[in-house]
Amino acid sequence: MKAPSGETSAAGHRLALRGIGVRFGGLTALDGVSLDVAPGQVVGVIGPNGAGKTTLFNVVCGLVRPTSGTLELNGARLVPQPHRLAGLGVVRTLQGVGLFRGLTVLENVMAGATCTARTGFFSGLLALPRADRDERRLREEAMAQLERFGVAGYAAALPGTLPYAVGKRVALARALAARPRLLLLDEPAGGLGAQDIEELAELITTLPREAGCSVMLVEHHMDLVMRVCDRIAVLDFGRRIAEGTPDEVRENPAVTEAYLGAEADPIPLGEETTPPAPAAVPFVREAAPSAQEAAA
Length: 296
Ligand SMILES: Nc1ncnc2c1ncn2[C@@H]1O[C@H](COP(=O)(O)OP(=O)(O)OP(=O)(O)O)[C@@H](O)[C@H]1O
Hints:
Blueprint: E1 15-24, E2 27-37, E3 42-46, H1 53-61, E4 68-73, E5 76-77, E6 90-92, H2 105-113, H3 121-125, H4 129-148, H5 164-177, E7 182-186, H6 194-211, E8 214-218, H7 222-228, E9 231-236, E10 239-244, H8 246-250, H9 253-261, H10 291-295
Parallel strand pairs: 3-8, 3-9, 6-7, 7-8
Antiparallel strand pairs: 1-2, 1-4, 4-5, 9-10
Helix pairs in contact: 2-4, 2-5, 4-5
Bound molecules: adenosine-5'-triphosphate (ATP).
Adenosine-5'-triphosphate binds near residues 47 and 53.
């Protein structure tokens, strides 16, 4: 995969998708979809069930190879490969929680930060001094992320023992520990209660400014999407039927028709689609470090 060589921004990566098409056998999952995520922007991808949101997300992550179209990162051609994305500053969260079950919470977040370490696997294996320093730094950074998300008390716990909302916070802490320049959020509000979603919304809106990353967000929770996104792309049957600011999208008749006309699981704009649940701890306790601090 070619490394992005174009102009970079302190507010995050620029992602451009052009005419992306995906076919699964006889089924067209995406048909000529274009999308731009500018540095500093939070861009949402919405649409009824089966519209192609996850497929588009998987194309960006390299899990699905498009049958047509191109991707660019900061103006350079991108052919995503999942295992190399973090090295390019592109980090994703998974639907659900997606933590490594055999590692503690702290180790999970350290694993997220590993791509920021200077030493390689063999230095660590040989216990060279630099590897020791790296591990100390990773541990401190991971603890700082856990504290930031209010879940440091779970550092020694295994993921299988965590309440769902805590697991989601840990997953976000792990993603941010990797210092992403482009963060791909796959249904981050899924299964969260109202208070957690409120705090998640606050976090997402601060990410470009405070963590120096742009954000692509796939989400069913319309209130969250409308609140945090700078721009929104709407998919329906694999095609992009609308794109614009939240107000433009909300007022677009094609969008209303796509949702209200969908036979299964219509999602009226503004409707709460996730069950409420109590939040035990605040999602974020303090401001994220600036891009400069994070890089120091
Ligand atoms: N691996 C696959 N093989 C065959 N068809 C697939 C595959 N993945 C997705 N599809 C189909 O592609 C279309 C788009 O699916 P996709 O999961 O991207 O939609 P979505 O908008 O994410 O839906 P949801 O909101 O329900 O998650 C659907 O018709 C789906 O059945």
